């Protein structure tokens, strides 16, 4: 009885927080409306799914209870679309995305002949033998296949987006991608535990399944609080990239396939000198929102050629290329005795960083020391 009360209590808290956060995401003024709406929908689906733990507290029909449980099949597809919307600024929902609702449709169609379309007594008999019903077993297999597919797909999207970002941008979006990766890892852990729970559910150890269920609900509460904390404390965290941008390795492959990939050493040397002169004289790296497109326009070198020059010829990501200039500039400030009163935070903003963690990481990678230790050494 205590376990049941605890489960119901935590479930009510999760439902309240999920719906409250959904309302906040739908009403807050932001440029990322689609991302907010998708995650709000994900939270609503989570609240609907968790409402199954309320049991008899909800006076609804058996058909509705089973139908509500099938909403799980929409959760990960919605999260996958959310990841796409966060990663790519030009992402839009299209009719083709309706395909992500196929598993939800299949799961309900499977139950139609022997559950939805039968009388109440037959429904009760079906639920009494639910563990041995082939429809339920099929839906559990389908559920786990879907879980694996969408989690792998989300990781692949994040991996590609991170590479594109490093090759074309030098702002703070890498942190949002890193955080979204961590969030996806947490969700993966959650669904893995759910998989283990479901395995025990169909064995002779249902108590283990019940214990894991309470653990999952607590884990879900932590994940939602984590997202809420990040979203409220970092409103500018989610900045996206252009999906039309290509990875350098794909550009090289395309040019090799079309026999256009040739290296003109003289032309590359001239472009490199032009780039280095612009970076030293104009100091565009002081802008935290600098992109490869900005430099391309300024020095009149096509983005494609500039990307190949930095990411392929110099064998350095644009992100690291720009940060190297920022760190050199920070080192000059740290060495200047007339600027000794400037704090590390003031310096990092002055040289183009907008995150203390990214500045410390880049500084240590470039010098082998933390900014504070480097200043003490001087």
Automatic annotation (TrEMBL):
<keyword id="KW-0804">Transcription</keyword>
<feature type="transmembrane region" description="Helical">
    <location>
        <begin position="38"/>
        <end position="60"/>
    </location>
</feature>
<feature type="transmembrane region" description="Helical">
    <location>
        <begin position="179"/>
        <end position="196"/>
    </location>
</feature>
<keyword id="KW-1133">Transmembrane helix</keyword>
<feature type="domain" description="HTH araC/xylS-type">
    <location>
        <begin position="270"/>
        <end position="377"/>
    </location>
</feature>
<dbReference type="InterPro" id="IPR020449">
    <property type="entry name" value="Tscrpt_reg_AraC-type_HTH"/>
</dbReference>
<dbReference type="GO" id="GO:0003677">
    <property type="term" value="F:DNA binding"/>
</dbReference>
<feature type="transmembrane region" description="Helical">
    <location>
        <begin position="6"/>
        <end position="26"/>
    </location>
</feature>
<feature type="transmembrane region" description="Helical">
    <location>
        <begin position="66"/>
        <end position="86"/>
    </location>
</feature>
<keyword id="KW-0238">DNA-binding</keyword>
<dbReference type="InterPro" id="IPR018060">
    <property type="entry name" value="HTH_AraC"/>
</dbReference>
<keyword id="KW-0472">Membrane</keyword>
<keyword id="KW-0805">Transcription regulation</keyword>
<dbReference type="Pfam" id="PF12833">
    <property type="entry name" value="HTH_18"/>
</dbReference>
<feature type="transmembrane region" description="Helical">
    <location>
        <begin position="208"/>
        <end position="229"/>
    </location>
</feature>
<dbReference type="InterPro" id="IPR009057">
    <property type="entry name" value="Homeodomain-like_sf"/>
</dbReference>
<dbReference type="InterPro" id="IPR018062">
    <property type="entry name" value="HTH_AraC-typ_CS"/>
</dbReference>
<keyword id="KW-0812">Transmembrane</keyword>
<feature type="transmembrane region" description="Helical">
    <location>
        <begin position="98"/>
        <end position="116"/>
    </location>
</feature>
<protein>
    <submittedName>
        <fullName>DNA-binding protein</fullName>
    </submittedName>
</protein>
<feature type="transmembrane region" description="Helical">
    <location>
        <begin position="136"/>
        <end position="158"/>
    </location>
</feature>
């Amino acid at each position: 009885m205590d376990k049941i009360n605890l489960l119901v209590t935590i479930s009510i808290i999760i439902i309240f927080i999920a719906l409250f956060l959904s309302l906040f995401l739908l009403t807050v003024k932001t440029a990322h409306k689609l991302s907010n709406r998708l995650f709000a929908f994900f939270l609503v689906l989570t609240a609907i799914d968790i409402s199954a733990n309320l049991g008899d507290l909800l006076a609804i029909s058996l058909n509705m209870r089973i139908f509500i449980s099938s909403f799980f099949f929409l959760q990960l597809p919605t999260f996958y679309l959310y990841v796409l919307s966060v990663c790519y600024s030009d992402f839009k929902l299209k009719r083709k995305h309706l395909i992500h609702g196929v598993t939800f449709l299949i799961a309900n169609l499977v139950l139609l002949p022997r559950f939805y379309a039968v009388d109440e007594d037959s429904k009760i008999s079906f639920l009494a033998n639910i563990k041995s019903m082939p429809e339920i077993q099929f839906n559990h297999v389908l559920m786990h296949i879907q879980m694996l597919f969408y989690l792998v797909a989300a990781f692949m999207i994040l991996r590609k987006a991170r590479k594109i970002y490093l090759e074309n941008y030098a702002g703070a979006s890498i942190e949002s991608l890193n955080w979204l990766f961590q969030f996806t890892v947490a969700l993966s852990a959650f669904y893995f535990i759910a998989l283990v729970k479901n395995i025990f559910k169909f064995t002779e150890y249902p108590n283990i399944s019940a214990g894991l269920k309470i653990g999952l609900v607590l884990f879900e509460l932590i994940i939602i609080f984590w997202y809420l904390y990040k979203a409220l404390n970092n409103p500018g965290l989610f900045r996206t990239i252009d999906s039309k941008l290509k990875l350098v390795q794909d550009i090289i492959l395309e040019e090799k396939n079309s026999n256009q990939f040739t290296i003109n050493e003289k032309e590359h040397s001239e472009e490199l000198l032009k780039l280095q002169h612009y970076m030293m004289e104009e100091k565009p790296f002081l802008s935290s929102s600098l992109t490869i497109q900005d430099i391309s326009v300024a020095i009149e070198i096509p983005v494609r050629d500039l990307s190949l020059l930095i990411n392929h010829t110099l064998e350095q990501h644009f992100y690291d290329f720009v940060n190297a200039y920022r760190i050199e500039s920070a080192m000059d400030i740290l060495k200047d005795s007339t600027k000794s009163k400037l704090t590390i935070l003031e310096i990092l903003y002055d040289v183009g960083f907008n995150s203390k963690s990214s500045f410390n990481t880049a500084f240590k990678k470039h010098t082998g020391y933390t900014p504070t230790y480097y200043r003490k050494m001087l």
